[in-house]
Amino acid sequence: MKPIPFNDLSRNSPAIVGALSAVGERVISGGWYVLGPESKQFEDEFAAFCGSSFAIGVANGSDALELALRAVGVRAGESVATVANAGGYSTHAIRAIGALPLFVDVEPDTQLINLDELASILASTCLWCSRYGGGVARVREEQTKDSAIQTIEGGDCNTSLRLHGGHEART
Predict the structure, then answer these.
(1) Glycoprotein as a keyword (predicted)?
(2) How many Cα atoms are found within 13 Å in the side-chain-facing hemisphere of 101?
(3) What are phi and psi of 24, to 5 degrees?
(4) Which 3 state secondary structure label does DSSP give 69?
(5) Any idea which fold 61-169 has?
(6) Domain boundaries, the chain
(7) Is 140 helix (H, G, I), strand (E, B) or coil?
(8) What is the phi-psi region of residue 89: left when phi exceeds 0, alpha when psi lies from -120 to 50, beta otherwise?
(9) What value does the mean pLDDT take over residues 24-28?
């Protein structure tokens, strides 16, 4: 049986290997592996790209989600609604702060959170909307306005998508 290249990142490598090698060499020769001028430049450029006044680089998506959960006030024992296909990183981040993941079904056509399940979600403290496969969940502010639920929208894989006639999804 021929294996399916589910996450074969080498398919794109030839097109970017030169640029990545140059950046790697610049970082290594500069002697700043963490929190140096390259990090600062990335944060400034990423903030400008997103139309934000600032951006903070972190090690990975789990760290970003954990910080976001803490920032909106999720505490140990509270539930965070998410989808199982968001990846282990989301469950890990939720559990890292002692919160409990509440897995919600996905829509068959998009693999994004099923909004028919919204009533059960609103009892949660937080809703983690993962962007899966380039899509943006159809959660709108008015759908959660009568609830105290906090909504975090993750977009580590597809930053600055647009949906719903201009709704810009941001990380």
Answers:
(1) no
(2) 22
(3) -60, -45
(4) helix
(5) Aspartate Aminotransferase; domain 2 (3.40.640)
(6) 12-50, 61-169
(7) coil
(8) alpha
(9) 91
Q: Which residue has the higher pLDDT, 68 or 150?
A: 68
Contacts of 114 (CB under 8 A, 6+ apart): 104, 105, 106, 107
- Which comes out higher in pLDDT, residue 65 or 159? 65
Residue 109 · residue 160 · CB < 8 Å: no
Whether this model's pTM surpasses 0.90: no
| Runs of H (alpha helix) within the chain | 13-30, 37-50, 61-71, 88-96, 118-121
Residue 171's alpha-carbon distances to 60, 113, 140, in angstroms, are 13, 17, 16
Give the other-Cβ count within 10 Å of 65's Cβ: 27
pLDDT tens digits for 73-118?
A: 999 998 888 887 777 788 899 999 999 988 888 888 777 777 777 6
CA distance 28 to 9: 23
First to last CA, the chain: 39
Triad 139, 48, 58: Cα angle to 5°: 70
Q: What is the mean pLDDT of the chain?
A: 77
Give the side-chain half-sphere CA count within 13 A for 118: 15
